[in-house]
Each structure stands twice: as structure tokens, then as C-alpha cells.
Write a structure and sequence with these properties.
Strands 6, 7, 8, 9, 12, 13, 14, 15 and 16 form a nine-stranded mixed β-sheet that branches. This protein has a three-stranded antiparallel β-sheet with strand order 3-2-5. Helices cover 17% and strands 23% of the residues. It is built from six helices and 16 strands. The radius of gyration is 25 Å and the shape is elongated. It folds into three domains: 58 residues, Roll (Structural Genomics Hypothetical 15.5 Kd Protein In mrcA-pckA Intergenic Region, Chain A); 98 residues, Pseudouridine synthase I, catalytic domain, N-terminal subdomain (Alpha-Beta Plaits, 2-Layer Sandwich), CATH 3.30.70.580; 89 residues, Alpha-L RNA-binding motif (Alpha-Beta Plaits, 2-Layer Sandwich). It is of the alpha+beta class. The longest helix has 12 residues.
Length: 294
């Protein structure tokens, strides 16, 4: 029997495929994939005495339950034995594009990559802003569609943690990506409290380093504009510096810290524009209220 020829090694790709962002599992997937029965929109239109298009709006707005579970797919099919309910507070308001704030952990990419932070988007990890106007009752209702068509903005390096933003709103994406140089950011930067690159961290060494960080450095051959750097927290075992700046470039903070002779331990972004991260837990996310602006 003739053997199949061996493949040419040059034609075989050795690169690892990029991992796909896992879809958020819907508890109603079995309903949405049913091939038999009546279309949910048709059933709801007859049951609620509304038009088919209005029924589809109710469904896509997350106002409809089938057997007690929310179904957002207007094309879903239901059996005659299944119970269809329309929420008593249902309305036909236009669905707004949402913006999500996340506390990115170290080791995750803020955009595309092998470990994208999008993997962490899970309804179970949603937090509610404690300072939300109107309280928790006024919080945005979660919909599965809110995890679709998200644009990552305000990138953070793999080794940094802190606030990142995903948005469906092109205006916010444009402001945070295209006009990033105009938006002030604030980071907490931890450095070794005892050892500098050359010798111990004395008060004189620290003050000289802060003075140079505020003004007097260059990055990639370009003189940096003045930025605000101050001591945020100092104990015998920990030393955190607060950076406030505009137009920061990838790798800029680590290089600045090294240039002034300090040892970098951690970077955490705590504010973008007017929006602070607050007490959002690591790996969790929340909605940006529509009345808040960057």
C-alpha cells in the first residue's frame, strides 16, 4: 500500500493559534437554538397584543422570560408547553450603547492577546458603583448584548493592573483612543522602599528622584513635558508614588523609574479623566453611568 507523502516542514505552521475570547454562556442557549416550535416574537405579539416589531424590541431589551429565564434572541423558538412572560416594567426605550469599567489584574492584556482581559467579563463579576445616583435600583440592567461589539481603550501593559475601559460607544472610543493625549490619567507606582539601583533609598535619593521625574527626563529621545509626581504612601516596607500625566507612552513609566535610579515593583492605574476606579475589586467590572463623562 502506498504511503502518503510526508508534509514539507516549511509548509507546516509552528505558530500557536490565538485563543478565542470565550463567549459568555447564556442560560437560555437551549431555547435560542431550538429548531421546532413557534417564534418567540410571534408568540409574544399575540400574547401581549402588540406588533411583531414591538415584541422583538421587548425581547432584545431583556424584558421577556421563557420558563423563568430571560431570553434576548428575537429569533428564538418556543414550544406550546413553555411559559412566556413579559416583565411588568417592560418598555420600548431605545437600547443604549454601554461602557464597562474593569479592574484589570496583572498578567492580562487590555486589548487583543493570548490572555485578553475580555475573558474576565462575566455577569457574576459585576459590581455596582456605591456612589451611583439613585442607588442600586437605578443601575443598568445586565443584558448579554452588552458583552458584544466592545472596543478596548486605554491600554495597560501586561505587568500593570488597574482601570481599563471597554465601550460600545464610538464617541467614547474616539475620545480615549484618538484624543488620549488630552485625557489625564493617574497611576500608583510602587518602588522598592529600601534599595535603589545603587545603594539605599535615602530621603535625599527619593527627593532627587521625584524632582527629576516631575521634569528633566526624556523618552525615546524626546524631552518629556512636566508631570505631577508625589509620595502617595511611605512606610518602612512600602513606597508608593502617585503619577498624574497626559499622553503617557507604553514603557514610559518603567524607563523613567529606572532613569532616576529606583527599582520598580508595580504599576496600578486608578483614574482616567474624571472617572476613578474606586473600590472596584480586581478582576471585576461595572457599568459607567450615562451621566458620567471622562
Amino acid at each position: 500500500m502506498q504511503r502518503a507523502p510526508k508534509p514539507d516542514p516549511a509548509s507546516v505552521s509552528t505558530s500557536k493559534p490565538k485563543p478565542r475570547v470565550r463567549p459568555i454562556q447564556s442560560t437560555t442557549a437551549n431555547i435560542a437554538e431550538q429548531k421546532v416550535g413557534e417564534r418567540l416574537a410571534k408568540r409574544l405579539a399575540a400574547q401581549a397584543n402588540c406588533s411583531r416589531s414591538e415584541a422583538e424590541q421587548y425581547i432584545e431589551g431583556g424584558w421577556v422570560k421563557v420558563d423563568g429565564k430571560v431570553v434576548e434572541q428575537a429569533g428564538a423558538r418556543v414550544l406550546a408547553t413553555q411559559k412566556v412572560e413579559l416583565d411588568a416594567h417592560a418598555n420600548l426605550a431605545t437600547l443604549e450603547e454601554v461602557t464597562l469599567l474593569m479592574h484589570k489584574p496583572v498578567g492580562y492584556e487590555s486589548g487583543e492577546g493570548r490572555t485578553p482581559a475580555l475573558l474576565l467579563l462575566d455577569p457574576a463579576k459585576q459590581s455596582v458603583d456605591p456612589n451611583l445616583a439613585g442607588g442600586a435600583a437605578s443601575a443598568t440592567r445586565f443584558l448579554q448584548r452588552h458583552f458584544s461589539n466592545l472596543t478596548p481603550t486605554t491600554p495597560l501593559p501586561l505587568e500593570a493592573s488597574g482601570l481599563i475601559v471597554f465601550t460600545q460607544d464610538f464617541r467614547i472610543a474616539r475620545k480615549l483612543n484618538d484624543d488620549a493625549d488630552r485625557v489625564e490619567q493617574e497611576c500608583m507606582v510602587q518602588v522598592d522602599s529600601k534599595r535603589a539601583l545603587q545603594g539605599p533609598v535615602t530621603d535625599e535619593v527619593l527627593q532627587n528622584a521625584i524632582r527629576r521625574l516631575c521634569h528633566g527626563l526624556s523618552f525615546n529621545g524626546i524631552e518629556l513635558p512636566p508631570i505631577k509626581v508625589s509620595i502617595a504612601q511611605q512606610t518602612p516596607t512600602e513606597l508608593w508614588l502617585r503619577f498624574a500625566f497626559k499622553g503617557i507612552r507604553p514603557g514610559q513609566i518603567p524607563q523613567m523609574i529606572e532613569r532616576v535610579g529606583l527599582r520598580l515593583l508595580a504599576i496600578k492605574r486608578i483614574r482616567i479623566g474624571r472617572i476613578p476606579m474606586g473600590d472596584l475589586p480586581v478582576g471585576h467590572w461595572r457599568y459607567l453611568p450615562s451621566y458620567k463623562k471622562f
